[in-house]
Amino acid sequence: MMAAIYDEQYARRYRDRDDQLDAVGSYQELVRWIGGVCDRFGRPIDVLDLGCGTGRYFWGLRHVNTLTGLDASAPMLAEARFPTHADRIRAGRIELINGDLARHQFPNGSFDLVYSIGVLAEHVPLNRSLVERVAGWLKPGGRFAFTTVDPRSPDVPKTLARRIASAMLPALPGDAGRRLHERLMAGGMYGDARWIRQQLDGLFTIESLEHYQSDVHLHGRCVARKVTA
Fold first, then answer.
1. pTM above 0.85, yes or no
2. Among 48, 49, 27, which residue's Cα sits nearest to residue 219?
3. Disulfide engineering: 79 pairs with which of 15, 120, 149, 168, CB 3.0-4.6 Å?
């Protein structure tokens, strides 16, 4: 379904937009953010971009040994072969894979960093199943960096039912509160701080979790480190 939506015409428009983003402050902030995550390792790293699209964040990565980009859309990956600021990409090797991130598998311990910007809890559910798979792909001490759309984002429809449920949520304990919260998160298509912590619990230690405002949404932004025995 997603691959059909992101056809050649869409991919070309999306790639054209990449070249206009240098004037967008929130985009530049994300580029600095992902570069800063790379700096936390202090050594060359192997990186996976989940839902890489046209590769618009490739140039922000630093100290990269290998870079793997996974996306469900072949036309988007075709554009990613010529990403924005290609001359500033310093990865030793880049591999682009056409695959569904909800089903694709990598060998355990393949990456130091898995990141996903503008995909999880937006186009693809952020849920426990995906988090478990990411944890398996990471090396010991590896990091998972990602953004979500917060349900309080101004563009999320504020229906009467959603407003009532949001008001009730703090007063509902136990399973009733959990079920209502899951409904408000649409099963992972949105992600607030509570939802992010629940999905990562026991598998990752959160290093940073914050809000930021893009030109489109209010987002959550998280960096988490894999828990090792």
1. yes
2. 27
3. 15
